[in-house]
């Protein structure tokens, strides 16, 4: 049977049985919260660095710990976010203790009070900087983490430094001529000639990744702290994304740009596209602009459908990247792409009321349960192969980008969304 026809049949079954749909939603919530708890238990049991502070920087795919590995800013910001969000949802004081540990390490080792940035992109295991640059996406993640810690604890210190990073981005990174935010700066916030995070990246001066994640951070600030300057910057960034970054005709994001928004060609990234759909919608909801909401709605739904057409596989997994002419080119299925797909499909279901999107969310969650969760050691494999679903054991179990963030966020997002739907039906 054709895969999408199967999804249609499943969605028809859901639509004919409201009680069946509620049952499915409650089961989904139960399962994702159980997995959320297991994910954070893995990090609590395996990553705390008692000798040098914070959390160790790497565990290999075979579970070999590397206590002398470098520690990344993005990883530590995401750890801060994950424990803060967990405490906010559960009120479990163990999560508060670990969120505070992560917050303190982030402030003590990565924040630069001399210039109000986070230029220590990588530090060694003892805390000495090994890579120094204010990379816009990393500043965004630090801002996101500090704002979430503030949401969870109401720490005035966290709010103070959240706003300091916001002001630095607005002062130094915002392009006041062509709009959008530049990608990389020195410790003193001087614009760099080479803006690449890694040697293999294109030397683009503006990227979807940076502008998108700055938007996510600003939305999280404004969610709790209703400041007009933040509101204005958030609205501008949403408009930058829908006017400059998203190819509205095709339904996908352009990824790399020169100063004047001239596109540097690249393949589509289905993970970033599918993640963008729900986070842009979330930002518009936080902003509360009804006119902008009406502009954004058809754009993000077209993006969801584009990912389904070109990146989604018959087993329920989303592949990594490709293009319209050749389809998926990197057919591996990454852990974080699957987590973001579940949220995005569920979000599309909430927006449209169409049960087919709920069916896609459930199928992807089933894919995660079967192939992505490491049942023996805990946490998730980094990637699995397309058809035989073999995990790539060369990938780290934790590392500079392998974090407790996408998958734990999925659990909390789905639980909150299920509650919202069921409460609305009561």
Provide the fold topology.
Blueprint: H1 3-16, H2 18-46, E1 71-72, H3 73-90, H4 93-110, E2 120-123, E3 129-132, E4 134-135, H5 136-153, H6 156-173, E5 184-185, E6 206-207, H7 208-224, H8 228-245, E7 246-247, E8 252-253, E9 256-257, E10 263-264, E11 268-269, H9 270-287, H10 290-310, E12 321-323, E13 327-330, E14 333-334, H11 335-352, H12 355-372, E15 383-384, H13 406-425
Antiparallel strand pairs: 1-2, 2-3, 4-5, 6-9, 7-8, 9-10, 11-12, 12-13, 14-15
Descriptive keywords:
58% helix; 426 residues; mainly alpha; single chain
Summarize the structure.
With 426 residues, this protein is mainly α. The chain is 58% helix and 9% strand. α2 runs antiparallel to α13, α4 runs antiparallel to α5 and α9 (270-287) crosses α11.
Distance between the termini: 37 Å
The assigned structural class equals mainly alpha
* Shape verdict: globular
Q: How large a portion of the residues is in β-strands, by DSSP E? A: 5-15%
SSE succession: HHEHHEEEHHEEHHEEEEEHHEEEHHEH
Regions with little confidence, pLDDT below 50 for 5+ residues: none
* Neighbour order of strands in the largest sheet: 1-2-3
Average predicted local confidence, pLDDT: 95
Number of helical segments with 4 or more residues: 13
Major sheet summary line: 3 strands, antiparallel
Oligomer state equals single chain
Radius of gyration from CA coordinates:
21 Å
How many strand segments?
15
> How helix-rich are the residues, as a percent range?
55-70%
């Amino acid at each position: 049977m054709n895969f999408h026809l199967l999804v249609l049949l499943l969605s028809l079954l859901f639509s004919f049985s409201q009680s069946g749909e509620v049952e499915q939603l409650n089961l989904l919530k139960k399962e994702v919260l159980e997995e959320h708890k297991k994910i954070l238990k893995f990090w609590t049991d395996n990553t705390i660095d008692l000798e040098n502070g914070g959390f160790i920087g790497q565990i290999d795919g075979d579970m070999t710990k590397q206590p002398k590995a470098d520690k990344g800013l993005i990883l530590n910001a995401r750890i801060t976010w994950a424990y803060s969000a967990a405490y906010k949802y559960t009120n479990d004081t163990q999560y508060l203790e670990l969120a505070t540990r992560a917050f303190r390490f982030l402030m003590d080792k990565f924040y630069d009070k001399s210039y109000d940035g986070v230029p220590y992109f990588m530090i060694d295991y003892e805390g000495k900087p090994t890579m120094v640059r204010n990379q816009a996406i990393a500043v965004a993640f630090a801002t996101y983490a500090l704002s979430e810690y503030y949401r969870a604890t109401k720490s005035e210190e966290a709010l103070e430094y959240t706003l300091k990073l916001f002001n630095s981005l607005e002062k130094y990174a915002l392009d006041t001529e062509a709009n959008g935010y530049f990608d990389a700066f020195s410790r003193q916030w001087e614009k760099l000639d080479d803006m690449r995070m890694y040697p293999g990246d294109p030397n683009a001066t503006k990227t979807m990744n940076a502008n998108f994640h700055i938007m996510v951070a600003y939305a999280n600030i404004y969610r709790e702290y209703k400041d007009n300057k933040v509101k204005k910057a958030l609205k501008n960034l949403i408009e930058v994304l829908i006017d400059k970054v998203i190819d509205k005709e095709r339904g996908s994001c352009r990824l790399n740009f020169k100063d004047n928004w001239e596109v540097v060609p690249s393949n589509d990234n289905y993970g970033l596209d599918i993640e963008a759909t729900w986070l842009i919608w979330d930002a518009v909801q936080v902003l509360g602009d009804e006119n902008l909401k009406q502009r954004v709605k058809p754009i993000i739904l077209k993006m969801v459908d584009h990912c389904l057409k070109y990146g989604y596989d018959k087993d329920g997994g989303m592949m990594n990247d490709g293009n319209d002419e050749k389809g998926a080119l990197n057919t591996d299925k990454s852990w974080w792409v699957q987590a973001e797909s579940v949220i995005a499909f569920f979000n599309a279901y909430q927006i449209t009321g169409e049960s087919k999107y709920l069916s896609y969310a459930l199928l992807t969650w089933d894919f995660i349960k079967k192939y992505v969760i490491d049942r023996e050691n805990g946490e998730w494999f980094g990637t699995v192969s397309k058809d035989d679903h073999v995990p790539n054991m060369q990938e780290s179990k934790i590392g500079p980008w392998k974090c407790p963030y996408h998958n734990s966020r999925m659990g909390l997002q789905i639980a909150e969304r299920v509650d919202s739907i069921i409460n609305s039906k009561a």
